[in-house]
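Continuing the batch. This is chain 6 of the set; chains 1 through 5 are on the previous pages. Same settings as before, nothing changed between runs. Recording input and output for traceability.
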Amino acid sequence: MHEALETLTLKQAADLLQVSERTLHRLLKSGELPGRRVGRQWRFERAQLLAWVRGEDSTEQLLRDQRRTIELEARKFGLDIPETLVEMQQAALRRLGHAKDD
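Output for chain 6:
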């Protein structure tokens, strides 16, 4: 079973990565760090930050996170995941050079 995605604040992300908030701002400005602005604040997905630290492709991680979210929501509502969506994600991973499917 997959865990729900955990969203972190700037301070929580800095604590997780053991760096200052100023360092995070610099990484965000350079486009190195995955994150999103929500209003005037930054939010981060814990799994994406950990993948970034490990040097994994953030695009691959994003696709995996999206699929995990879809699976969780589908289970919650008792729905089947459309095959076309799964096929689309598998094709995207293949284009990135990752033939392995989750």
